[in-house]
Amino acid sequence: MLTQNNSIHEWQRLEKIRLQISGFIDEGVSMLEAESSKTRIQGLTQLRTLITKFTTEERLMFTVIHSQRSCDIQRIIYELLKKCKSPKADDLLELLTVLDLIQGLSLIHYESKKMALRKHRLNILLTYLSSREEHIVVATLETLQTVLVDSSENIQAFEQNSGLDLVCNLLKKKRQSEAITYKCIELLNVYLQDEKEYPDYSIRNKCVDSNNKKGKVEKLLGVSFVKQLLSTFK
């Protein structure tokens, strides 16, 4: 009888957590669909803050709930990402907040990471590498880094959509910007990692080993640069 009571109390406790998290998600998603940019930013911030404050148990519960609703959430996020094109302050803040949320979701929910680089979404992200705003370029590079790490499938998409070429060209053009240079180098280091331990390694249609990837970067940036890059991150 005691064991049964304990099981009931545990179920009630977990159900309370589920309802709380579901409520936060519902409220956040509703705010993301608002007409007001200020309200959307509040919704994005609320969801991002929620993610950062999770306990391990709450994070697991969130991933379960998010897995059931990730298509809707991801759709809204990337619709917002497409809209943030103007140089207005509110749009820039909204864009930065969207990128921050994509990073957070990618780090705690693997399916969100994989959904982030579906072709049309990757192309949206890559367009922001040409922004005149340094902090937008830096945030985009950070976002690409979070969605590439631990995912062979995303690295393949990144290659096929000229992401590697764009980052290498950006590195050559933006050497006057220390922040952009460093973020490009960090991203290339992620790209060059061995993929054999990645969860989706077997999914790749054509596996590319580290030497193959190294050769691609050497072709774009030179042998000496890649040698220095690899020695820096050993």
Describe the structure.
The protein is an all-alpha fold and 234 residues long. 78% of the residues lie in helices and 0% in strands. The chain contains twelve helices and no strands. It has helices spanning 2-32, 37-52, 56-83, 89-108, 110-116, 119-127, 134-148, 152-160, 163-173, 178-191, 210-221, 223-232. It is globular, with a radius of gyration of 20 Å. 27% of the residues are buried.
Helix proportion: over 70%
Order of helices and strands: HHHHHHHHHHHH
**Helical stretch count?**
12
The rough form would be described as: globular
Query: How far is the first residue's CA from the last residue's CA?
Result: 57 Å
Oligomer class: single chain
Low-confidence stretches: none
Mean pLDDT, to the nearest integer, reads 83
Q: Please state the structural category.
A: mainly alpha
Number of strand elements: 0
Radius of gyration: 20 Å
**Percent of residues in beta strands:** under 5%
How does the major sheet shape up?
A: none
Précis, in short:
The chain has 234 residues and is mainly alpha-helical.
Helix and strand arrangement:
Elements (H helix, E strand, L loop, with lengths): L1 H31 L4 H16 L3 H28 L5 H20 L1 H7 L2 H9 L6 H15 L3 H9 L2 H11 L4 H14 L18 H12 L1 H10 L2
Keywords:
single chain, 234 residues, mainly alpha, 12 helices, 78% helix, 0% strand
